[in-house]
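Give me structure tokens for this 366-residue protein.
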Amino acid sequence: MQISAALVKNPGNSLKIKNLNLDDPKDNEVLIKIIACGICHTDAVGRDGGTSPLPLVLGHEGSGIVVKTGKKVNSVKPGDHVVLSFSYCGECENCRNGHPGMCEKFNQLNFAGKNFDGTNRISTNNGEKVNTFFGQSSLANYVVVNENGVVKVDKDVDLSLLGPLGCGIQTGAGTVLNYIKPREEQSIAIFGAGAVGLAAVMAAKIAGVKHIIAINHHGNRLSLAQELGATEVIDNSEVDAVKAIKRIIPRGVDYAIDTTGNTGVIKSAIASLAPAGECVLVGVGGNIELNLMSDLLLESKKLSGVVEGDSKPQEFIPKLVKYYKEGLFPFNKLVRFYKFNDEDLNKAFDDSKNGKVVKPIVVIND
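Here you go.
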């Protein structure tokens, strides 16, 4: 079938909406009409050629309606409302143990550009194969996705709002609720008040954490962080974050989450920890140099990396929807909606980069 999709052909190019071909779903796949798709930093990295082979259709926070299912699909049916999340094999040891974000084939299934069987579903009108992003490529009006990446959600919630639950929001909230699992008397410092960091703030509030400290450069983000549950906020463009944290909690925090991927910020997050504390990295970053003895071992500190909030999407995303319906997880305060055209689509990327909006969502089908 013919679809309209946001295609990038060369690294760093602006996105262009093109007419492409989409093959029918195979036995374990689902055809979905996309209603909306969130934009996050990982899309920008993909656009710039940093994760996946080009040409590539971007988008990995899709929400939509099931149109058709393969004959082996039994978790959803036509007409169901769904959120699309990351791909995982479902068969490796980590998947079997309930940790699909740690899937042994995660990079292959989400970044190599192919479907589970190693083939493509998207092509140009002249037959050139087009790569898939996160197993979905949901900046398109229709997609074909493996069943493992599909999550059924309630029909009584605005479907255009829900796409970001599939990645960014899930990452922040899941890191707190699924991986860290803090106790009420504990403390957590969250470095970066973007969509991931603010989702972590909301999750920490749900967990009843005593000290929820949000650190960011943008003052307006810190006001929002307080509104969403931060007990203390720090503008690290004005003060030293580590000193400010230790004025609040002299021994340091039990947990720190870095959502920025910035080397200096990560070092501050580690330095802000109490003895035996843990710093969890969830942001896309590069090289970092640490002194293992002074930075970690002498105080038994831990440094961890967590992907997708250690979530099983089919279980965790419905929980987040439930929290939202109960007024406990107001992630709608983070979003701004954009139209599905070249100008608005690229503006959504720009507004995300320059901090004008926390979480852009592109509405594809009204």
